[in-house]
Amino acid sequence: MSGQTLTDRIAAAQYSLTGSEVARAVCKATTHEVMAPKKKHLEYLIQATQESNVNIPQMADTLFERAGNASWIVVFKALATTHHLMVHGNERFIQYLASRNTLFNLSNFLDKTGSHGYDMSTFIRRYSRYLNEKAFAYRQMAFDFVRVKKGAEGVMRTMSTDKLLKGMPTLQSQIDALLEYDVHPKDLVNGVINAAFLLLFKDLIKLYACYNDGIINLLEKFFQMKKGQCKDALEIYKRFLTRMTRVSEFLKVAEQVGIDKNDIPELTQAPESLLESLETHLNTLEGKKGKYLL
């Protein structure tokens, strides 16, 4: 119990009295201790999402309640716990979050209790935006990019042209929200922000794999697309090229803070000639509409 405040213990005890073990576990995962949420509490909550008799909206509401705390520690841990459950819990947890009109409203969050509070508040605001975007992407696509099958037989490689042109901007927005976290090694100074960073890093690896799959599918279909589709696809591809640099920068931070190099993918830059040939093809379609428009 060391490091927990009296408030933490009272909050946990209140839920014990009402018989809500799930809410008690949420409180235990989001104490005022400056450390990552404890594994045993996260595992309990993951298991709870699998149980048919557990009320998922109630679990989410307890997390939202904790995210309304004044302390940056409690709020950050509530976000990290939510993120953990979105990734590892039963899919009905993220489905429920995606069905809500609003999730975290922390764009003005500021813990003024000390310089550390000020610094961490910045990352809380950015982190909450990412989790909101992650839930929104699920609502748009009816699946989580992080959890779907990757590779040649994966979701993004086998997607139809229309769905791909709708899905790629959604994926790009989620990646953008993650990259806007914009953390540097000097900021990773405690167990709470480090836990969040690790979750974001793991999401980025899987999101980028989906992104890559989507681009491969897009390029394979490009020369059979109609002119309007080609225009959209070319914009998506150009954005992909600019994001590669930012993804590389995020991965460099991961390497600098000691994440195993074997867990960090190598990004290979696409040749300039590829972009030129795509642009040439689109110009041809625009110049000779009657002959080339499918």
TrEMBL record:
Q: Name one GO cellular component term.
A: clathrin-coated pit
The processes (GO biological process) annotated in the record are: clathrin coat assembly; clathrin-dependent endocytosis; protein transport; synaptic vesicle budding from presynaptic endocytic zone membrane
User: ENTH domain: from which residue to which, for each copy?
Assistant: 14-145
- One Pfam annotation, family name? ANTH
What is its subcellular localisation? Cell membrane; Membrane, Coated pit
Please verify whether the record's keywords include Lipid biosynthesis.
Answer: no
Regarding the membrane, this protein is recorded as: Peripheral membrane protein
The alphabetical list of record keywords is: Cell membrane, Glycoprotein, Membrane, Methylation, Phosphoprotein, Protein transport, Transport
InterPro entries tied to this protein: ANTH_dom, ANTH_dom_sf, AP180-like, ENTH, ENTH_VHS
Q: Superkingdom of this entry's organism? A: Eukaryota
Respond yes or no to whether keyword RNA-binding is given for this record.
no
Task: Please classify the protein's predominant subcellular localization into one broad category.
Answer: membrane
Q: Which segments of the protein form a coiled coil according to its record?
A: none
Molecular function (GO) terms for this protein are: 1-phosphatidylinositol binding; clathrin heavy chain binding; phosphatidylinositol-4,5-bisphosphate binding; SNARE binding
Subunit architecture: Binds AP2A2. Interacts with AP2B1; clathrin competes with SNAP91.
Of which family is this protein a member? Belongs to the PICALM/SNAP91 family.
What protein does this entry describe?
Clathrin coat assembly protein AP180
Q: Per the UniProt entry, what species is this protein from, by scientific name?
A: Denticeps clupeoides
